[in-house]
């Protein structure tokens, strides 16, 4: 319980600072072409990270958990060299080709908006490399169950970034926000470096790397498909009214911020804990912890939705007195959040379910579910957008997560894991 509270506080602080960074940019510049370009420019770096770095985290933590300190150090350096080189190459290729592929993701932007999106995307591709390296570093900390420093380093980096943003944004505009985001990721890499231990020569042919590749292949195949969701959203919203993309992104970020607190405090420690119980053959303990965490997350999610429904408008109205967010903007934001509430409530339960699969080394089942759910959900989202605009897209998100939850529940029943 003590670790849960500590992680919850650190995660809430970290996510809150990250959210405040984006909120500050949005309120100072106002929802419009500049912020739309900034958030659209995040789409491809986030997609690549979700496909490769996110998949790697789910594989590395259970793989390294329970191993000796020396084994963790050697394997971690091998993964760091591999991932750093891979993402460096990807960033270079995407950077060079940005003038060709970026405009295709935002066809509704005018020529100036597309040019700005290209510039902002290129800046954030540099930060993508640091974030990928951070993923390996976090995995090394989590495998040792050293969660606290891993969660504290982003706070230090975010405080520095916020102070710099307050000074730089009025002077250099949206370009400053993109560069400071990249700098924040680089600072985290430096702060997390001690967790890697003393450097060793990477062994790219080690059994751990071969096993990681075996586990990650189905994840890469599936996530390369269904993690394109943000690109679909940006593509559709680029033809909506100016500022709609920014408000939609902010709504997702608010939910994402709270979900990340739950993820860091509950889901992240759950993977190594369940992995150890599985390796020890303690099936009863495995089922008990899984169901307890599922119940906790369900209760937190329900409480969050009740607060949003009853007090959401007054709470968001507190922002109206700051910067360039109007009352009309805030009402639209609240409606978007209500309609996409499935992302929060059902998505949080999905985190626990997928964590259970990953702790067992089963990456194929959640990937298969994700691919089927996305295939159905993306069609629904497109139809809803053309019927109701940005609000329809928000409602489509909830339907998509409901489909995913139903399929995941069916898969768990078939596998008889719990």
From TrEMBL:
Q: What is this protein called?
A: Putative peptidoglycan biosynthesis protein MurJ
Molecular function (GO) terms for this protein are:
lipid-linked peptidoglycan transporter activity
Q: Mind listing the UniProt keywords for this protein, alphabetically?
A: Cell membrane, Cell shape, Membrane, Peptidoglycan synthesis, Transmembrane, Transmembrane helix
Question: Pfam families attached here?
Answer: MurJ (PF03023)
The protein's location, in the record's own words, is: Cell membrane
Q: Show the stretches that span the lipid bilayer.
A: 7-25, 37-64, 76-102, 122-141, 148-168, 297-320, 332-353, 390-408
**Can you name the source organism?**
Kuenenia stuttgartiensis
Family to which the UniProt record says this protein belongs: Belongs to the MurJ/MviN family.
Entry function: Involved in peptidoglycan biosynthesis. Transports lipid-linked peptidoglycan precursors from the inner to the outer leaflet of the cytoplasmic membrane.
Q: How does it sit in the membrane?
A: Multi-pass membrane protein
Q: Is the keyword Transmembrane assigned to this protein?
A: yes
Q: Source organism's superkingdom?
A: Bacteria
Its cellular-component GO annotations read: plasma membrane
- Report the gene name: murJ
Q: Which PANTHER family match?
A: LIPID II FLIPPASE MURJ (PTHR47019:SF1)
Gene Ontology terms describing biological process: lipid translocation; peptidoglycan biosynthetic process; regulation of cell shape
């Amino acid at each position: 319980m003590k670790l849960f509270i500590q992680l919850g506080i650190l995660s809430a602080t970290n996510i809150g600072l990250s959210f405040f960074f984006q909120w500050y940019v949005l309120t100072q510049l106002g929802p419009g072409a500049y912020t739309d370009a900034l958030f659209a420019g995040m789409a491809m770096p986030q997609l690549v990270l979700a496909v490769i770095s996110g998949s790697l985290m789910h594989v590395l933590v259970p793989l390294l958990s329970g191993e000796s300190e020396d084994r963790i150090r050697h394997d971690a350096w091998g993964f760091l060299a591999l991932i750093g080189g891979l993402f460096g190459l990807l960033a270079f290729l995407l950077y060079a080709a940005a003038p060709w592929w970026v405009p295709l993701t935002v066809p509704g932007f005018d020529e100036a908006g597309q040019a700005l999106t290209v510039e902002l995307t290129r800046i954030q591709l540099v930060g993508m490399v640091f974030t990928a390296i951070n993923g390996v570093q976090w995995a090394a900390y989590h495998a040792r169950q050293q969660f606290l420093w891993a969660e504290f380093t982003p706070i230090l980096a975010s405080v520095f970034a916020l102070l710099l943003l307050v000074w730089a944004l009025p002077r250099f505009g949206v370009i400053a926000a993109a560069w400071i985001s990249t700098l924040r990721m680089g600072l985290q890499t430096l702060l997390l470096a001690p967790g890697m231990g003393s450097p060793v020569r990477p062994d790219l042919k080690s059994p751990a790397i071969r096993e990681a590749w075996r586990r990650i292949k189905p994840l890469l195949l599936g996530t390369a498909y269904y993690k394109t969701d943000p690109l679909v959203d940006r593509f559709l919203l680029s033809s909506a009214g100016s500022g709609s993309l920014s408000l939609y992104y902010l709504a997702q970020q608010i939910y994402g911020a709270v979900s990340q607190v739950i993820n860091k405090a509950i889901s992240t420690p759950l993977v190594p804990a369940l992995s150890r119980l599985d390796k020890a053959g303690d099936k009863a303990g495995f089922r008990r912890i899984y169901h307890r965490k599922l119940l906790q997350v369900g209760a937190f999610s329900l409480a969050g939705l009740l607060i949003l429904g009853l007090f959401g408008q007054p709470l968001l109205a507190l922002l109206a007195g700051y910067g360039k967010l109007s009352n009309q903007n805030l009402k639209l934001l609240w409606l978007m959040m209500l309609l996409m509430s499935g992302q929060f409530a059902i998505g949080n339960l999905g985190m626990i379910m997928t964590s259970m699969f990953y702790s067992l080394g089963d990456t194929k089942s959640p990937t298969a579910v994700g691919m089927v759910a996305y295939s159905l959900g993306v069609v629904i989202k497109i139809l809803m957008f053309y019927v109701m605009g940005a609000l329809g897209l928000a409602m489509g998100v909830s339907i998509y997560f409901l489909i995913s939850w139903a399929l995941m529940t069916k898969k768990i029943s078939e596998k008889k894991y719990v």
